Amino acid sequence: MSLLTPERLYQLLPAIHRLRDAEQGQPLRALLAVIEEELTALEADTARLYDNWFIETCDEWTVPYIGDLVGARPIRPVPSAGVSMRGWVANTLAYRRRKGTALVLEQLARDVTGWPAVAVEYFQRLATTQHMNHVRRAPQATAGVRDAAGAELAQAYGSAFDAFAHTLEVRNADPRGGRFNISNVGIFLWRLRAQPLGQGAPGEADADFFSARDSGAGFWHMHPAGVDAPLFNIPRTESGGAVTQAAREQHVSAPLRALALHAELERLRAGSAQPAPVFMTQAAPVLRVFARLAGETLPVEVAREGLWICEIPDAVEQALPTPRVAALDVRRGRIAFAAGLNVQQVWLQAAHGSVADIGGGPYDRGDALRAASRSLSQGQATEDDAGGFFDPTVWQAGVTHLLPLGGTGQLFATLRDAVAAWNAQPAGRTGVIVLMDSLSETDAAPLSIHIAEGSRLMIVAGQWPLVPIPGALPGTVGRLPGRFEARDVRAHWHGKLQVLGTAAAGSSNPGALFLNGLLLQGPLQISGPLGQVELAHCSVLPGGSHITVAGDSPRLALRVLASLCAPIAVAGPVTSVSVADSIIGLLDDGAPPAPALHASQAALDLQRASFFGSVHGLTLAASDCIFDAPVTAERRQTGCVRFCYVPPASAVPRRYRCQPQLEIDTRIAALRTAALAAGLPAPTGAQEAALRAEAEATLRPLFSARRYGDPALGQLDERCAVQIRTGAESGAEMGAYEQLRQPQREANLRDALAEYLRLGLSAGLHYAN
C-alpha cells in the first residue's frame, strides 16, 4: 500500500488550479477523488499480486496454482490437525532433495498426517550372517535376557524402537502387514495426543498446577478425578523444525515408559552425566511433583532424585523407606510418599493423553469461546485486535487459588464466592466467571447458580491476564472485562452443581448459562425457566454425575459441544437438545447399562457424536453419529438419520446411507443380481435373513476404550468395520472423532509414499496407539 497522504493526486496540481477549482465549487477535486479510489484499489491489487508469488504470503486460492508449478500433488486438508496444502507445497523442494531417505519419509508422514511418525527400514533389523571382518554390533541377533529395558522397548510403541534382530518375514508390507524383510519399510504413527497441564513454581505469578486425589488406600491418584490414567510424554520438537535425525521416544506422544524413567533417575542419583536425560531434563521435565506437608503454607517441589519408579497396588500395605520421598506408577498414574511424611496436598505438572481436543482440557478453546461470546453478548460485543470479544459492560470475576485477591473485588478465592456475587446481580445482567487455575475445588454442599430473567452467564476455565489500562498512567495494568483467554487451564469442580432459572414461568426472555473448559465431578441439575444452557469442551464424569433437566423449562435449548458426558436425562418438554462432536453416556466400570440420552419430549439434533447407551427423543435429526444401543424417536414422520450407525431394533425416521442397513441392502441386491445372472431362483427369505444376521453381527462399532481416564476413550478399534471407519458424509469415521479425518490423513500419506518411496520398496502403516 502507498504511504502517500490522501488526495495525493489533487495535491500534485499547481496551487493556481486548486484556487480556481475552489472558486467553481471544487468539481476537479471531486473528479480526482474518484480517480484516486480506483488508483488505490489498483495499488492494493498490485501489492497483493506480488505477495501471491510466494507460498508463505499468497492467498489460499493461489496455493494449488503454485503447487502445480512445482509439480506437487494435491492433498486433503485437515484443519483439526494443522495439515494444509500450503505447508505441503512449501516443503516440496526440501522433500525432493532427500527423496527416498528414511528421514524424509518421517517428515512426510508428520506433515501430511499431523501425527508424530517414525520410519523403520526393516533390512537393518534382520538377523543375517556377517563377515567376521565387518561385524555390526547392532542389531543384536540374540536378545539379552537381562536387558529388561531393551525387552520393554521391543514390545512398546508397536516395536518402532526395537533394538533386536529378527528372522526373515516374506509377507508384503502393504497391505499384508509384513515387517522384517529387505524391501519393507514401516511407518509408525502416534494418533493419541498429549495434553500437558501446569507451569511455573509455587509463588510465581503465572504458575499453574493440577491436584492429585487421595485414594484413601495409601496412595494418591495423579488425576484430579481419582481415576487411573497413564502419564504421557510431552513430545520434544526436533531442532529447527526439520527432521535431521531419526525420531526417538522423546519425540512421540505416548505413555511414559517406566523403565526408561527409572534408568534416567538412577543415573541422576548416581551423579552420572552421560547419557543425558531426555525425559526428566532440568529445564523441561515431563512431570513435576509438589507436596505440601502439615504446617507448611505452600507445597515444595520433590527433587528428581527423590522420585522412584515402581508399581503401586490397589492397597499400599507398607510405605516407602525414609530415603525415598515419592514413588510413581506412571502406567496407572499413582503416587505414594515415604513413611513419616504427613502430606496434606499434592500438586502436579504433567500430561495425560486423549484422542482429540474434546472434553475439559488445557488446549486452546478460542474458537468455541468466540462463538459463545457472540451469544453471550447478544451481538453487543466487538472483536478486538487480539481476536477476542470485548464488552465493557460485562460483569466479570475471577476465581484463583494461587494469586492474591487484592481489594478490587474482581478476584475470589472460591467458585462459591464468585457465584454468590453473581447471584446478587440484578436481572438482565451479562457476566463472566473465569476459573484461573487448574487446582481442584471440592465442596460437600450443593452450589446453586441463579440465572435471572434476561441474564446471561459464562463460566470458563482460562487466563485473565493483566493488561495496560487504556487512558491510565503509563505502566498502569489491570484486568479488563472481556479480556480473557480460554487456554492452558482445566478447572475441576467436585460437588453438586445446580442451575436454577428464576424468571417468571411465561417469560419470553429467560436467562442463559455457558460452561466452557470445565471438569465437573458431581451431579449437574438444571431446573427453572431457562432459555439456553451450553456445555462446550467440558467433561461431566460418571459415578452419580448424571445431567438431569427438570420439566419446568419448556423454552430451554440444551447444547453439548465437544464434551465428554455422563448420561443426560430430560424430564419434561424442552425446545431442543443439541449434541455435536461429543461422547455421551460415560459410565463407571461395572455400572449397569443406562440410557445415554433420554429426552422423550424434546427435539434431538445430533451431529458427529457417539452414544454409549440408548437414545430416546420426540423427534430426531442425526448425522455422522454412532448409536451403541437402540435409538427411538416418538415421531418418525419428521427428521432424518444420515450416515449413522443405527443398531437393530431402533425406531428412527427415514435413513440415508446408514449402517448396517446400507450394507444389508447392498449384499441382498448383489445376491439377487447374481442369482438372476446365473438363471437361478430368487433368494429365499431364509437366505436374506442369514445375510442380514451376518451383516448385523460383523458391522458394529468396536471401541478401544469406554472408561474415562483411558487415553483412547471412544476411539474406534482398527478391527472395526471399514464401513463405520469411513462411513461419515466426509468419508471420515462416524462418531465424535469425525473431525480428525483419519482416513483422509492416511490417504494423504499413501499418496505421498507413492511418490517419495524408493523403487522396489514397500511401505506398511502401523498405528502405535
Number of strands: 43
Mean pLDDT: 87
What characterizes the major β-sheet? Answer: 18 strands, parallel
User: Globular, elongated, flat, extended or rod-shaped: what is the shape?
Assistant: globular
Rg over alpha carbons = 30 Å
The domain tally reads: 4
Question: How would you describe the overall organization of this protein?
Answer:
The chain has 769 residues and is of the alpha/beta class. The protein has four domains: 8-51; 60-191 and 746-767, no CATH class; 194-354, no CATH class; 366-661. It contains 15 helices and 43 strands. The protein has an 18-stranded parallel sheet that branches. An eight-stranded parallel sheet has the order 18-23-26-29-32-35-37-39, with no helix packed on it. Helix 7 runs antiparallel to helix 15. The longest helix has 25 residues, at 27-51. The relative contact order is 0.09. The model is unreliable at 385-389 (pLDDT under 50).
Summarize the structure.
With 769 residues, the chain is an alpha/beta fold.
Topology:
Blueprint: H1 8-11, H2 15-23, H3 27-51, H4 63-70, H5 85-90, H6 92-97, H7 102-113, E1 117-121, H8 148-155, E2 184-189, E3 193-197, E4 210-211, E5 213-214, E6 220-221, H9 258-270, E7 288-293, E8 300-301, E9 307-309, E10 326-329, E11 334-337, E12 343-354, H10 366-377, E13 382-383, E14 389-390, E15 395-399, E16 411-412, H11 415-423, E17 430-435, E18 440-442, E19 447-451, E20 456-461, E21 467-468, E22 477-478, E23 491-494, E24 497-501, E25 512-516, E26 518-521, E27 524-527, E28 532-536, E29 539-540, E30 547-549, E31 557-561, E32 564-565, E33 568-570, E34 576-580, E35 583-584, E36 597-607, E37 610-611, E38 615-623, E39 626-627, E40 631-633, E41 639-642, E42 655-656, H12 661-677, H13 685-698, H14 722-725, H15 742-756, E43 762-767
Parallel strand pairs: 2-43, 9-10, 15-16, 15-17, 17-20, 18-23, 19-24, 20-25, 23-26, 24-27, 25-28, 26-29, 27-30, 28-31, 29-32, 30-33, 31-34, 32-35, 33-36, 34-36, 35-37, 36-38, 37-39, 38-40, 38-41, 41-42
Antiparallel strand pairs: 1-2, 3-12, 4-12, 5-6, 6-11, 7-8, 7-12, 10-11, 13-14, 21-22
Helix pairs in contact: 7-15, 12-13
